[in-house]
Amino acid sequence: MAETQTVQRTPLYDAHVSMGGRMVDFAGWDLPICFTSINEEHAHTRTACSVFDVSHMGRLTLTGKDCQSFLNRLCTRNLDQAEVGRSYYSHICREDGGILDDVIVSRFEKRWGIVCNASNREKIVAWIDKQSRGMDVSLKDQTTSTAMIAMQGPKTLELANAITGKDLSSLKRYRCTEYTYLIMKVSVYRCGYTGEDGFEVVVPASAIKMMLPKLFGSKGSPNPLIKPAGLGARDTLRIEAAMPLYGHELSEDWDSLTAGQSWCVDLEKDFVGADAMRKVRDEGLPRQLVGLELDGRRIARQHYRVFAGGKEVGEVTSGTLSPTLGKSIAMAFIKSDVAEVGTTLEVEMGSKRTGATVVKLPFYKRPKSS
Amino acid sequence: MSIPTDRKYCETHEWFAGAEDTITMGISQFAADELTDITYVELPEIGKVVSVGDVVGEVESVKATSEIFSAVDGEIIEVNENLAGHPELINDDAFDKGWIAKIKVSSTASLESLMDAEQYKTFMAGAH
Fold first, then answer.
1. Mean pLDDT for the stretch of residues A14-31
2. If you write DSSP's letter for every residue of A215-231 in order, what string do you get?
3. A8-55+144-240 — its CATH code?
4. CA angle at residue A360 from A75 to A39, to 5 degrees?
5. Residue from B39, B65, B91 to probe the interface with A (highest A Cβ count within 10 Å)
6. Separation in Å, CA of A38 to nearest CA in chain B
7. What ipTM, to 2 d.p.?
8. Nearest to B42 by CA among B24, B64, B58
9. pTM of the model
10. Of A232, A296, A350, the CB nearest to B36
């Protein structure tokens, strides 16, 4: 982790700086933490449409006739029936169940796409290389030759329709497609990491700049419904939506079931890590991922210890002051016998302990109908 | 960024203003901007006696928690109660409405070694 390497810039770097982005080093990439304020960008995403630069995330393309059987063995999710035009959230694990990464696997007509975390990209490329030996699978890392943006928020669909002149409403959640826009190839995914409706769009790196006026409007008359947002809001949004983050809820040190993500695991099929996870299932989970609502305004941060009746029962994985709820919220791994909704616990913050109540996840769910 | 010239600055980004026996302290706008949205301020108790280098309180943001330190010996005589309900006052106006505490001192000698506005500006340029 502490290797010294130069910080990389995404194709949107100059645009971030010119829009007033406060740049920070994130997983080796120079990215904006915010443009105005995290709270403002958070609220804008929940009410209109925010654009996030997610070009740091790994974009891998797989081709070859063995792709489907290979990916079905590599991923925790069942991809045996994977259809063209669909995206699947999955984990990639080691034999011992340790989570190497969480990814979105998408099936296009002539290829498969994997979007992985920036911090895990090299590891995943090497893992795919090793696991696919002897199979007809070839991998191309397209991370630096493309740019990726996420448009998120309840106004995204109508704005995206207006910008593209297409009706994107037929592209349902977790569907993906390819368009030719002007002369370039564009991949569009109806997913995101904010708990809102939205799209993630991949374009050639050289083309993203000419798309920006289309997105934000011209300098003189910016579209007030679309604003840039940074990594700060991305984190508070995903915590409210209880979406896991690698390095927090997910780690090589535990498996997908222990991470509370059994919904993306199919133990009926064979995959790398399946045996280890079946054992975990049979022995019973010692802990659970829960939501906590804390008293007061202080933020519970990763590794803060959680107590029940004076006994240590677990630790916080992520926390923030929820901009939507105005409350201090956290996710935590705690012992199963104190994980029931409504249980009163305490979180250690410095020298003091603060009261906390187990609540249902997610903390925020977008209103239906949109 | 305009840096008020009527006060002194620490390398840990606190400011101290006032020449007589009452010193007002806060954190700089640079520090507030770096922390991003401030969500909570742990204020000291009135009557608390502090020495140079003591922790006076904590400023917490979405991004991080950071302690604030005293650069004077003295007694806390007033705290900015508005910060309890509106910690964002520090983001909005770190040098004025976002002040944190007032300290009664017998001497301001310890402030002499701190940075003035010009020096702090140079220091920030290096810190960024």
1. 95
2. HHB-SSSB-TTEEE--H
3. 3.30.1360.120
4. 90
5. B39
6. 6
7. 0.76
8. B58
9. 0.91
10. A232
Q: Which two tokens stand for residue A293?
A: 């609502």
Contact B62 A236 (CB under 8 A): yes
- Backbone CA torsion sign across B52, B53, B56, B60: positive
Sorted by sequence, the CB contacts under 8 Å of residue B2 that are 6+ apart come out as none
Residue of A299, A303, A325 best to disrupt the B interface, most CBs of B under 10 A: A299
Which residue of chain B has the CA closest to A239? B62
Question: Where do the domains of chain B lie, and which CATH numbers do they carry?
Answer: 8-106 (2.40.50.100)
Pairing of strands A29-34, A8-9: parallel
CB-based contact A298:A323 (threshold 8 Å): no
* pLDDT tens digits, A99-156: 999 999 999 999 999 999 999 999 999 999 999 999 999 999 999 999 999 999 999 9
Per the CB < 8 A criterion, the answer to whether B15 and B7 are in contact is: yes
Question: In the CATH scheme, what is the homologous superfamily, with its name and number, of domain A286-359?
Answer: Aminomethyltransferase beta-barrel domains (2.40.30.110)
pLDDT digits (tens, 9 = 90+) for B44-101: 999 999 999 999 999 999 888 899 999 999 999 999 999 999 999 999 999 999 999 9
Looking at CA atoms only, how far is residue A94 from chain B in angstroms? 32
Residue B36 and residue A321: Cβ atoms within 8 Å?
A: no
**Neighbour order of strands in the sheet with B22-27:** B7-9, B14-17, B22-27, B101-104, B74-79, B49-50
Q: Which residues on chain B are in Cβ contact (under 8 Å) with A296?
A: 40
CA angle A13-B37-A248, nearest 5°?
A: 75
Please classify residue A94 by burial: count the beta carbons closer than 10 Å to its beta carbon, then call 0-12 exposed, 13-18 middle and 19+ buried: middle
* B118 touching A (Cβ < 8 Å): no
